[in-house]
RNA sequence: GCCAACAUAGCUUAGCUGGUAGAGCGGCUGAUUUGUAAUCAGCAGGCCGGGAGUUCAAAUCUCUCUGUUGGCUCCA
């Protein structure tokens, strides 16, 4: 007899040899939604035979743990189907991931048609209700079983200790090395969909075998899967690359270059409004705005450390033409030229990868006293970085971008307060734009690493300042060791977009390194020289990435103050053009961005055309409006409002714009 | 940078296994003067991403470059 605790403290008696699955079915019913069992706090298969005195709880398919198991099992199901259709395919690893799973196979590339075929086979296997069975073997037996799959052998070499043995899971003829647990039968894996294929490397190492990766979604219920599909379709509609084209917000031109954004007039309005918005807060917070050039001498970046240490992510340096010609005549190769520059033998210019060196030279241009601090230098500074070609995407991963950058030169005592001020700014900005789904990450140094600059006591103090500031925000934050910059700890703001992707936007970083490298100082109250500390901060991160994320956040429907065209005026017929001009003039006089459509299209056609551009307001003007001096409009909610006096409408929209209501 | 797929008019796209391009929207012109998600007609617009090759013949096959997409890797 076994005494088994089920749930809180109900003890049930079972016969010897009873499995966890039997207990769960007995207590919670056949349709419990359980995929596996938690026995004394450890996850096990349903088939696990219980011992006396154990506690059993079901792991439900809609719990985090349950979904993990479901998705993991679904990866096995995929592998079974692939191996059945492509017997030469060698499964490697197949973990669950957010929303689903993937599995990497060593095989020839497959087509979309193959993918459909695999999915069909998976569904057949589900219908066949094939039991998934756990078997345990010693190392020798396992090596024999997977002798034809070098990847599984390598996993055993890495993960399984001598003599430890491990488990395999068998479903039909398919056997996979796995710790489990898994669902008891393929019939439980109903709500999945294969989404895409891609390639990856064995152990993510480019020098190793290239593998075919198949991605899929998997959920506990039909509803969850459908919801996810709907969300993904919705997300695709909001893709800033598509909306950017449709709404004429920006353009990327093959002839200009990869990852280089051309801001078209409509997009430039959005950017300009955002910059004005930030600038108003900069004035409030006592910043000084500066301008610095797009390039600087190599020596500047040798001093800052950017040139020697981050060469692979910079555009190559610019060299004077005469010098280049002379070197070419002397038969100097590119490699030699590069070496000469590295050694500082010849001078060149670099497209700036960061604004800080320029700002530092502004600080250093005058002797500074403690009375000057904090000195806050802000610039919408454009920087260039050589992102890898495969990484470039839309506005969010680019090679040239403008940071809403600032560098604060502070005394050590001022760090905490100034960091707090930076964070407050980020919070105001996110709040205004209604970006609520974000998390805060405090990047601390890795205690075991020696790559960091500066004394441990200073780090402790700076890290504590970041922690305190994050805590003061009132939103949950994580502390992540090893995520600090090499020169100091940082606070990152990570926003989650509609696709569920996370974007690192705002950042605040404390820096002890650059003041040291540039030998910055100020005279303290004691008359002695002291070293200032720098704070780098960019609430948006970059204008490009931020606008890209904003386009998706708003689905192209910007709040009125950001809308490229705030009011589209549509006339019913040509009789109303004069009145439309009058309304247009009144709105323009109130600084409202107006677009007129006095063409001979029908009102239905005009509405269709103009709705597509997603303006904040659509005004419809006909006899009724012209005769009464009113407007009829559809606002951001697209509810129709009729007969509003023109003056009232102008006053309302003006107030909405100046309040920057989201 | 690596792997794979893709690139036809401003946009969305048709063009099967080679026989030098068709449409819708948009644009222009004319008719129409319209009250809530496409009024009608006509016209213009393409060396099929660039270059090279195979072939009597290439949008179509091959190579290469550029770019895009999805991943991998990287990210001060």
Q: What's the short story on this structure?
A:
The chain is built from 21 helices and 32 strands. The strands form eight sheets. An eight-stranded mixed beta sheet has the order 16-19-20-27-24-23-21-22, sandwiched between helices.
Strand content: 25-35%
Shape verdict: globular
Indicate the structural class. alpha+beta
CATH class of the largest domain: Alpha Beta
Which percent range fits the helix content? 25-40%
What characterizes the major β-sheet?
Answer: 8 strands, mixed
- Overall mean confidence score, pLDDT: 89
What order do the strands of the largest sheet run in, or round the barrel if closed? Answer: 16-19-20-27-24-23-21-22
Q: Note the quaternary state here.
A: single chain
CATH superfamily of the largest domain: Bira Bifunctional Protein, Domain 2
- Uncertain parts: none
Please give the count of helices: 21
Kindly give the count of domains. 5
Radius of gyration: 31 Å
SS elements, strand count:
32
Second rung of CATH, namely the architecture of the largest domain? 2-Layer Sandwich
Ends: how far apart?
66 Å
Could you name the CATH topology of the largest domain? BirA Bifunctional Protein, domain 2
